[in-house]
């Protein structure tokens, strides 16, 4: 491909509309153009990159035994009514009527359609396990489409669905996908972690999100500095501090005038927040519940909801009036002693000795409180957010908090959709049994954005070679010099003959412009044919990733370029 003929509309300035680096660079490097909020046209280089990711995904899905299909994007409401999601799915579901006034929607995901395909075509356990996938444009009318390809309204997703006869089978299908996903993101050349995510009602460790590590990620994740443990904050847990063997001291009521906040109380009492237990009131479906937590810890609401056995949408912090109505005490002076409402104590509280708490009386706290002796919570549970420095529960290593971008999600669905849509097969005793399902998504277009968030510098994109639009960019630095021009052409042709993907920059532009664009679009290897060629017959090969330059004679350069490309491909 010749640069002069390709549509690569690079921009000199950062476009004002772009907030994050991948969005800026994708626009500046001429990979995408916006049509309207959250929808983009992929220009030639953008599409080439998307195709690279798709092909890796496709190869690894096929290797794992999944079969590619393609489902319709427009879906009938009737199917969504069967699953109950026509009502449940919020405004992200774009609904409309067709010419016959039939309610329809654009597919944001395909559980309903795939379950329909399987219920009408699979009638025996002998056809199982079955894993079907597609790579397709999804539509979600996101509340806040932003960050370019990171959160679009229209985006490309690979979605796969597995069907098994038994729970055990479904778990094996899940593990096969887990392995395939590891291979996919490794081959893409990305630094990532598979993190345990909250699997809600299914329980167990059957939901993992694949996170590309990048400072600009939207999600905070906890990772161990010593082993592979990684979890998102909604799920992360750690070793509970071992309890102190100090002897319990006598309760001591102490006046703390106007001291309501943890820090103010601790300063006044000359203790650390780790020696205080705070009492927070939550409304759980309109019932007040007290949550006891070490002073320096924070509640993780999803974990709290799981301990309470409710959805996280059913809980919220109580306001001051609700606190007073429930306890008769203004917030800031609450404590567990004598508290008459349901109380959940965090596991860490159980391990503490002689801690300070509110006295359930304005302007008073109590010292030397001990769980068991002075109060008994209704329930204990792990309800706090882990913090940096906590100990890993798998290996005792130290947890760090870092940022990640979710590029994939694997999830054991169980029989939610197969039961609702009556997708069943006869078991050994001819009882109709619902298929056990799993679903597995990868945001193909988000992978491209995440790769750029993780791999860039001030000059532009630094593509991992396996997902770069092409691997080599040849710069002809002087079109008027016949020797240079013919050498550049020869290298270009030879590389093409060897199956290397290459662009020849044959534009009538100054060298400075060509160098800048080369850095911006991030092609892994830049081959420069310029003055050193006319003078000494020397070609320069520069790696975009580490900036290393090798100079080599014209005769040897094709072989050297091919070697470099092959070494960078993570095959
Ligand atoms: P998020 O929490 O980011 O909204 P999600 O939980 O809605 O993601 P899934 O339904 O699991 O995502 O979709 C599978 C994958 O599709 C995600 O892991 C992500 O990579 C990608 N994805 C989801 N929403 C978008 C979007 N609006 N734009 C681009 N990619 C997306
Ligand atoms: Mg979403």
Number of strands: 31
Helix content: 25-40%
* CATH superfamily heading of the largest domain: Bira Bifunctional Protein, Domain 2
Query: What's the CATH first level of the largest domain?
Result: Alpha Beta
Largest sheet: 9 strands, mixed
Number of domains: 3
- What proportion of the residues form beta strands (DSSP E)? 25-35%
Quick rundown:
With 571 residues, this protein is of the alpha+beta class. 28% of the residues lie in helices and 29% in strands. A hairpin with a 2-residue loop joins strand 25 and strand 26.
Tell me about this structure.
The protein is an alpha+beta fold. The protein contains 16 helices and 31 strands. Strands 3, 7, 8, 9, 10, 11, 12, 21 and 24 form a nine-stranded mixed sheet that branches. Strand 25 and strand 26 (460-461) form a beta hairpin. Helix 1 crosses helix 12, helix 2 packs antiparallel against helix 6 (167-187) and helix 2 crosses helix 12. The longest helix has 21 residues, at 167-187. The model has no long low-confidence stretch (mean pLDDT 95). The structure holds adenosine-5'-triphosphate and magnesium ion.
